[in-house]
Design goal:
six-stranded antiparallel β-sheet, 36% helix, Beta-Lactamase, 289 residues, disordered C terminus, 2 domains, alpha+beta
Length: 289
């Protein structure tokens, strides 16, 4: 698309139009683009494109991919339309899934996405225990200190984690919080390999959480399905059942948004490194919330 061709209308704001048209170049098939590619597509000088990219990166609408010259859409795109979030495909398709999970387990169920360093609750259904009120939609928790965040970070390498936490040191919320990137990476990798994660009173006393990842068609973690148990610890036999239900719900939502194969389908599940089924190891020690 040549931006110059759209400048005839005197009411258009050229700089805004260029920025919006640049963002529109990122698609399902073109998730990452360089400044040179964007310059060629838009018919703009490279200097102009790099100024636009710098502005969009500063505001969170695009992110640089590692240390290279490529960019991808940032979480700012989601923030821009957060009020519209309830009608987006992820939450539309996710609500009946977490409702079914709540019905199967009796516990409050949630759908959570990552916004930078925060895990954001975008959908919830309350559990059958009227005396226990779980966290509300729109609430934010620190990614590094919660099992929700660990699962959302699944599949990221150390360079990506360093991009999120360039200072290297992580604030502690409880004695179980990882305070270095090495500690965080070990926990993230463990949960990603397992295909699920659990916290037993690690972030908030008296609360246990079980979470499983939701993948897009690029086999990237885009959300987490979770349940909250109002207990400091969960019985080992119960853990196996709850983990199974939570992973099943996450697999259903993955299939609905991405058409990736579910367990038992040809092609295998979960993707790539997350192929181990460690549900039977449900009583392992969890070090962070």
């Amino acid at each position: 698309m040549n931006v110059a061709a759209d400048m005839d209308d005197r009411y258009l704001v050229p700089a805004l139009l260029r920025g919006l048209q640049l963002l529109s170049q990122f698609t399902r098939d073109d998730r990452e683009l360089t400044g040179a590619e964007l310059s060629r597509r838009l018919g703009l000088p490279r200097a102009s494109v790099f100024r636009i990219l710098h502005t969009l990166e500063h505001t969170g609408f695009v992110e640089r991919v590692g240390d290279g010259n490529s960019y991808k859409l940032g979480i700012g795109v989601l923030r821009l339309g957060f009020e519209f979030l309830a009608s987006m495909e992820l939450t539309e398709l996710g609500r009946p899934v977490i409702e079914a999970l709540r019905d199967a387990t009796g516990y409050s169920a949630h759908l959570v996405v990552r916004d930078g360093r925060e895990a954001v609750f975008v959908a919830k259904v309350a559990g059958h225990n009227a005396m226990f009120h779980s966290i509300q939609v729109g609430a934010r928790l620190p990614v590094h200190a919660t099992v929700l965040g660990r699962v959302l970070l699944g599949g990221l390498d150390m360079a990506a984690l360093q991009g999120i936490y360039p200072e290297g040191e992580l604030p502690a919320y409880t004695p179980q919080t990882p305070t270095t990137l090495a500690q965080l990476k070990a926990l993230v990798d463990r949960d990603f390999e397992a295909g699920w994660g659990m916290s037993q009173g690690g972030f908030e006393n008296g609360i246990s959480t079980i979470a499983a990842p939701v993948f897009n068609d690029g086999r990237e973690v885009v959300a987490v399905v979770s349940i909250t148990v109002p207990a400091q610890t969960v019985d080992g036999a119960q853990v196996e059942t709850l983990v199974g239900e939570t992973r099943r719900a996450a697999a259903v939502l993955t299939q609905r948004i991405s058409h990736l194969p579910q367990p038992g389908d040809a092609g295998g599940w979960p993707p790539a490194r997350g192929t181990k089924n460690t549900t039977n190891n449900a009583n392992k020690e969890y070090l962070a919330a």
